[in-house]
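User: Can you fold this complex?
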Amino acid sequence: MNFFGLTLGILTLLIIGLGFVWVIRGERYFGYLWWPYVMGFGEVLIVISLFISSIWTSALLGILGASLIWGSTELKEQAVRAEIGWYPFNDKKILPPLAKIIEKWKAPHL
Amino acid sequence: MLNPVGLVAALATFFGIWFGHVAVRKIEFDSPSLWLPTAVFATVGLALEWFSLVTSNLLLSTALGIIGITLLWDALEFTRQQNRIKKGHSPANPNNPRHARLMHEHGAVTNLDLLKRDPIGKPVSTAEAIKLITEP
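Assistant: Here's the predicted assembly.
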């Protein structure tokens, strides 16, 4: 029996669960325009995982990276949910560097 | 030598979430029954976990383990998606008899997708939220 995949699967569920929390909180306090930075950070984690020899650390970095990339594509929709009032709306957001430029980009949504 | 485990885990996670996200919404929208897709996803999820346990291939065990658990979660998401429909947080399908019944029983059910727009940076009333997606 090889429990590596099953254990990773359960850890993936926990990491995705954390994704719900940071997407909601992150959008509330920082706003959805942070999405390119979150996406870039996730990609960096996946690249780093290639250079880690421990299979557990490498796998968990990959899962964390993928979950960050997915979450970055959820931020825009979460911003709309807060505007509609399904989640608390905060108008004093800490905007990212280059927010004016990012605003002109089409935020990804899958 | 590059270690491919992290990349395989990342691809399984990303495409597992993406597939589940799209498939649960689409199937819940069209299917008159909720238990059938729930049972199918749970069965396939369990089967993948079984293969993940018995294979000696590390990369296969990684991918199947992650995708299998994701499918098991998706099985639960069919019910959670129906709850979003009841609250009007996701669009209902009037041609689906199960949704038609929900429309009759719950006042909040709507066939509008209030999330299908870009953020405007300020809170909106329900009337404004509808206007933003219906008026070009």
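Helices of chain A lie at 4-30, 35-49, 55-72, 75-84, 99-102. Chain A touches chain B through 48 residues (CB under 8 Å).
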